[in-house]
Amino acid sequence: MEFKSVAIGVILILMFIVPIFYMIFRQSTKDKRRLKKLKDLSTQNQMTLDYYELSNSLLLGLDNSSKKLIIVEPQNAMEFDIIDLSKIDSSSISKKSDPETNKHTGKEPLIRVCLELIRNNPKQKVSEIVFYDEDDESNMDADVQLVLAKKWDNLIRMNLSA
């Protein structure tokens, strides 16, 4: 009786643990492929990445020496855009929120978080990097993406002022 109980216990534990390890392994290999693609694109465009970020909807890379930012959208067949930060005058975080406040937290829920890169002469928006969109299928946490947008805003501003 004791052997059967131990065997059933081990089988049950394996039924729960093996899928978790499999998901971790799949995500890790997916991230490695995306990072390799980002680094390949950057070397093709004579960039060495000092900072990079991988998420489900966005791959970002920043080269401090050439002052260039690479933006890759995996959902759009790995389309990429390279922005020369020497031609950008300012960056700002744009947040759109729902007018209804959340009863639990007391604040308005975010609908969209993006980082706008702006050229002053003439005043025009060069690019918009979307970190969170409520309508996007890869529903991420809006507050986490806001923190990520602030991090990249600071990194970009350091390269604009230098």
What does this structure look like?
The chain is an alpha+beta fold and 162 residues long. The chain has one domain (2-161). 39% of the residues lie in helices and 30% in strands. It has a four-stranded antiparallel sheet, with helices on one face. It has a three-stranded antiparallel sheet with strand order 5-6-7, covered by helices on one side. The termini are far apart. The model has no long low-confidence stretch (mean pLDDT 85).
Topology:
Blueprint lengths: L1 H43 L6 E4 L4 E5 L4 E6 L5 E6 L5 E8 L12 E10 L4 E10 L8 H20 L1
Antiparallel strand pairs: 1-2, 2-3, 3-4, 5-6, 6-7
Summarize the structure.
The protein is α+β, with helices and mostly antiparallel strands. It has helices at residues 2-44, 142-161, and strands at 51-54, 59-63, 68-73, 79-84, 90-97, 110-119, 124-133. It is built from 2 helices and 7 strands.
Total beta strand runs: 7
Neighbour order of strands in the largest sheet: 1-2-3-4
Q: State the domain count.
A: 1
Order of helices and strands: HEEEEEEEH
Low-confidence runs: none
Mean pLDDT: 85
Alpha carbon gap, first and last residue? 73 Å
Structural class computed from helices and strand pairing:
alpha+beta
* Beta-strand share of residues: 25-35%
Morphology: extended
Count the helices. How many?
A: 2
Q: Major sheet, described briefly? A: 4 strands, antiparallel
In percent, how helical is the residue content? 25-40%
Q: Taking Cα atoms only, what radius of gyration do you get, to the nearest Å?
A: 21 Å
